[in-house]
Amino acid sequence: xxxxxxxxxxxxxxxxxxxxxxKVFGDSTRVRILYLLLEGEMQVGRxxxxxxxxxxxxxxxxxxxxxxxxxxxxxxxxxxxxALADEHVRLILSCGIEHLLEK
Length: 103
Hints:
The protein is of the alpha+beta class and 103 residues long. The chain has helices at residues 12-24, 28-37, 44-51, 55-67, 87-101; strands spanning 42-43, 71-76, 79-84. A hairpin with a 2-residue loop joins strand 2 and strand 3.
């Protein structure tokens, strides 16, 4: 996905919101969850097993990610299935790793 040019100078509120968004990426568990969801939709239990964490710890982090509009959930029976919210999340992760690996 090509990177679009920045849309001009953002206002103070937008800059604050951007800083808040990037704070969500400041937790390695949340980043690990996002990378796992690059593979596709998953239930909490599968994410917990893959990361070696408790389902309650994963659920807590998923709430944070969902509040930041980075993941979405849908119901499948009694379970919730999580996925990346959109391609922007994939792009953010991709650009971050690309930046780290260019050194």
